[in-house]
Design a protein that fits this description.
Organism: Shewanella electrica
Number of strands: 19
Strand order of the largest sheet: 3-2-1-6-5-4
InterPro entries: AAA+_ATPase, AAA_lid_NorR, GAF, GAF-like_dom_sf, Homeodomain-like_sf, P-loop_NTPase, Sigma_54_int, Sigma_54_int_dom_ATP-bd_1
CATH class of the largest domain: Alpha Beta
Number of helices: 26
Pfam family, one: Sigma54_activat
CATH topology of the largest domain: Beta-Lactamase
Shape: rod-shaped
Strand content: 15-25%
Keywords: ATP-binding, DNA-binding, Nucleotide-binding, Transcription, Transcription regulation
Protein name: Sigma 54-interacting transcriptional regulator
Length: 699
């Protein structure tokens, strides 16, 4: 009965100890509670604990007086831990054996010295949590009853230690969940800030506010590349006061910026910056607001779709902000900032495209307005010569090769160019056209290739050229033979490489353009005379199409006459429903140096002069012979020509001839004034004196 009561008493004490141990909040308090219990026992023992932490490894807890020391050292692995782990049984050693086996641990012994040691595994559900070591200094050794009591104590320690580790693990998980919740909260705030912003300045201010509130970082900057590759845009938000940041926008040199390295390699970088560092020249405001010998900077790349768009630069923060999970969170904020930066760039690109679209619409409106009754809507004709040309058009239209339209002036080269474009796979986009002879040489390059803002006086903003407008479409260059020699290599490069640079720019622009060129000049002769580059001629002459003159297709004159009469009546409000056979015969008999354009002008004049419903030719054409009629078409003017003597008549004929040769161009190196050896003003005054109308000469 006495033994049973003693057993129950021991069990009650063990249960009380277990409850005490379960109330402790850490291992040090657990050890202190265990030693307090042992001091109340008949024989005072000193307890030491070794906890095998899965993260930090073995940790030895020893109590000296009221202080608990935690020792973490590799020597603990050479102690009894591995033996206890293998045997899962108590280890009983005297002081001499202990010193012999584990001299490093023995040297840690504090006075008073022990004489016997009992090392027991701390187990819970067969899992080894560590061991506890009991030492006695009364000169006796542990007997079997002492070992049995010690095993009960180790079991209580196992239950308490398992409970403590589970509670600490739950607390750590709860702390991590709270941090993640706060992290998600700041990420949501940053995301809400960035998705609504189109301006980089306001974007930086909002992101800087969130970073300052959550991390306590006082200096926040966003660095973005400039259109000039040698410069960077730096947007600063410095919180010298808690409420309102000091904002600024600077353009700094890329070579002297610490952000340039991050833009190049795209990795997070931490650096120390001093006032005398060469990179500090671009950080004058940072040292101005916070004078210090050294600043720690964190540079986080702003990436979107694998491309580095900029750098998030941070300073004036606690050191832990740039470590571990805090640094990862800053990288996530930089990712969201990248979305906003890309949105801002897209918005700027949309505005640029909008401006370009307005310019293109304006250009197309001008082109539509220029489509007067002097131009075709379709090709009229059934002669063998025109049918042969149409077969060539049909053959080449489906390809992307360059086409060179050759023929006299007025044969309808632009009409055939439009036909080639309409039959091509690029017909879904409007064909862009340009007359190389009508544009001054100084503006021709800008009009063809565009220019950058500030490229020359008057270039107030970026402008697209005709090649960019014709991307995925066709570009028709009329009178390509009049293109200046200095501009021809650049045109050749576009045709070969499908890339060019704007005037005043250094960025290569790739385009996909199908070129259709036209000229009434003999390019082969111009190549021999060094007036046209041979390599450009060979590039243009991939598929030449010669358009027949009107004299070669006289069978088409009746069809063309009916077409022109019908359209002229629509424009002039006339009603002519009869064309006499003699009129058609007379038109077929005449010479047409101006080709279809000349025929069109004659028909319009005839419609205007016809009083009834029957077409009547002008009297001078009805009565004149072929040479006189041809001369009339060339030189006739609404005003009567003044009387001239023989010298003036020779001068008149010479000026008219040169004007026809230069296609009506007066000024410039290819103009009539240059060929006649006169100043432009002198030639204009002589033309006025002799009654020469440039437009009438070209009709």
């Amino acid at each position: 009965m006495t033994q049973r009561l003693e057993y129950l008493h021991e069990q009650k004490n063990c249960l009380r100890l277990t409850h005490q141990l379960l109330d402790q909040s850490n291992v040090a308090q657990l050890l202190q509670s265990m030693n307090a219990y042992l001091r109340e026992s008949p024989v005072s023992y000193q307890c030491t604990m070794l906890v095998d932490d899965p993260v930090d490894g073995p940790l030895l807890y020893r109590q000296h007086q009221d202080e608990v020391q935690c020792i973490s050292d590799e020597m603990l692995l050479n102690g009894p831990l591995r033996l206890i782990e293998a045997t899962r049984a108590p280890l009983h050693l005297c002081a001499d054996e202990y010193q012999q086996r584990y001299p490093a641990l023995y040297s840690l012994t504090k006075a008073p010295a022990f004489c016997d040691a009992l090392i027991l595994p701390i187990l819970n559900h067969r899992r080894l949590l560590g061991y506890c070591e009991l030492r006695r200094a009364d000169g006796h050794r542990f007997d079997s009853e002492d070992v049995a009591c010690a095993e009960l104590l180790s079991e209580s320690l196992g239950v308490a230690l398992e409970h403590l580790q589970a509670r600490l693990s739950l607390g750590l998980e709860q702390h991590q969940l709270c941090e993640e919740r706060d992290d998600f909260h700041v990420l949501v705030n940053v995301t809400n800030a960035v998705i609504t912003e189109r301006s980089v300045e306001s974007l930086v201010e909002k992101i800087a506010h969130e970073i300052h509130v959550y991390f306590g970082i006082c200096a926040v900057s966003v660095c973005l590349p400039d259109t000039d590759p040698s410069l960077l845009n730096l947007y600063n938000a410095f919180f010298t006061e808690p409420a309102q940041p000091q904002r600024s926008h600077l353009r700094i040199t890329a070579a002297n910026s610490i952000c340039q390295r991050v833009l190049e390699h795209g990795e997070i970088e931490l650096c120390e910056l001093t006032a005398d560092d060469p990179f500090a020249r671009n950080e004058t405001q940072l040292f101005q607001y916070w004078p210090a010998e050294r600043h720690t900077l964190c540079l986080v790349p702003i990436k979107f779709a694998g491309q580095v768009l900029g750098v998030l630069k941070l300073a004036r923060a606690d050191a832990h902000c740039f470590q571990g999970s805090r640094l990862q969170l800053l990288a996530q904020i930089a990712e969201r900032t990248a979305i906003a930066v890309d949105n801002a760039r897209a918005y700027q690109e949309i505005n640029r495209l909008k401006d370009n679209l307005m310019r293109e619409n304006h250009y197309l409106s001008e082109q539509v307005e220029s489509l007067s009754h002097q131009q075709f809507d379709e090709i009229i004709g059934s002669s063998h010569s025109i049918q042969a040309v149409l077969k060539q058009v049909e053959l080449v239209a489906s390809t992307d090769c360059s086409v060179l339209l050759l023929g006299e002036t007025g044969t309808g080269k632009e009409v055939f160019a439009r036909a080639i474009h309409r039959l091509s796979p690029r017909a879904h986009k409007r064909m862009v056209k340009m007359n190389c002879a009508a544009m001054p040489a100084g503006l021709l390059e800008s009009d063809l290739f565009g220019h950058e803002k500030g490229a020359f006086t008057g270039a107030s903003k970026d402008r697209q050229g005709r090649f960019e407008m014709a991307h995925h479409s066709s570009l028709f260059l009329d009178e390509v033979g009049d293109m200046p020699l200095e501009l021809q290599p650049k045109l050749l490069r576009v045709l070969q490489e499908q890339e060019f640079e704007r005037v005043g720019g250094n960025r290569l622009i790739n385009v996909d353009v199908r070129l259709i060129a036209a000229t009434n000049r003999n390019l082969q002769k111009m190549v021999v005379d060094k007036e046209f580059r041979s390599d450009l001629f060979y590039r243009l002459n991939v598929f030449p199409i010669r358009l027949p003159s009107l004299n070669e297709r006289r069978d088409d004159i009746p069809l063309l006459t009916k077409f022109f009469v019908s359209r002229a009546c629509q424009h002039m409000g006339r009603n002519i429903d009869s064309i006499p056979t003699r009129v058609l015969r007379r038109l077929q008999e005449l010479e047409w140096p101006g080709n279809i354009r000349e025929l069109q002008n004659v028909i319009e004049r005839a419609v205007l002069l016809s009083s009834g419903h029957t077409l009547q030719l002008p009297p001078e054409i009805e009565t004149a012979d072929d040479s006189e009629a041809s001369f009339f078409h060339v030189t006739a003017s609404p005003l009567a020509a003044p009387k001239r003597n023989s010298d003036e008549d020779d001068e008149y004929q010479r000026i008219v001839s040169v004007l026809q040769e230069t296609n009506g161009i007066v000024a410039g190196p290819r103009g009539a004034a240059h060929k006649l050896g006169l100043k432009r003003t002198t030639l204009l005054s002589r033309m006025k004196r002799l009654g020469i109308d440039k437009d009438a000469v070209l009709e």
